Amino acid sequence: MQEFLDVMKALADPSRVKIIKMLQHRSDMCVCELRSALGLAQPTVSKHLKVLEGAGLLTRKKDGQWVNYALRREAGSYAAAMLDNLDGWLNDTPDIRDVLDKLPHLDRLTICGAPTGPDPADPATADTTK
Predict the structure, then answer these.
(1) What phi and psi values does residue 129 have, to the nearest 5 degrees?
(2) What share of the chain is helix, strand, coil (3-state, %, to 5)?
(3) 103-to-9, 10, 18, 35, 80 alpha-carbon distances in Å
(4) Separation of alpha carbons 15 and 41, rounded Å
(5) Hey, CA dihedral for 82, 87, 93, 94, is it positive or negative?
């Protein structure tokens, strides 16, 4: 029952629902992109992402300097069932439509800035002369 309650609590916030709806239309978004679309501060977006991830609705993956978030659709979980239902819900709601209309204009490099040099965690760009 706790898993169900965690999912319901996570989806009880309008900003978190907007995050889910954006990720249904564009997978692998970073905090910068989500912050830009939502018009919220980075710590606020990060807190929302932590709640959604804790409820089993999101996954995250490190990609160079970015952490990308995507929907987690594991079969059999309450989270997966809610994500499936949300696919068809709320798409024409003005608040949701507003953030979805921003998606094609979000450019990670413009919003977050270009990478600032070699990433020591990336073997392809790490400085091997040390």
Answers:
(1) -85, -5
(2) 50, 10, 40
(3) 26, 22, 12, 12, 23
(4) 12
(5) positive
The answer to whether 38 touches 99, Cβ cutoff 8 Å, is yes
pTM: 0.84
Q: What is the pLDDT along the chain (130 residues), one digit of tens a residue?
A: 988 999 999 999 999 999 999 999 998 999 999 999 999 999 999 999 999 999 999 999 998 888 999 999 875 688 989 999 999 899 999 999 999 999 999 988 888 876 655 544 444 444 444 4
Question: What would the two tokens of residue 62 be?
Answer: 């490190």
Q: How far apart are CA 91 and CA 68, in angstroms?
A: 23
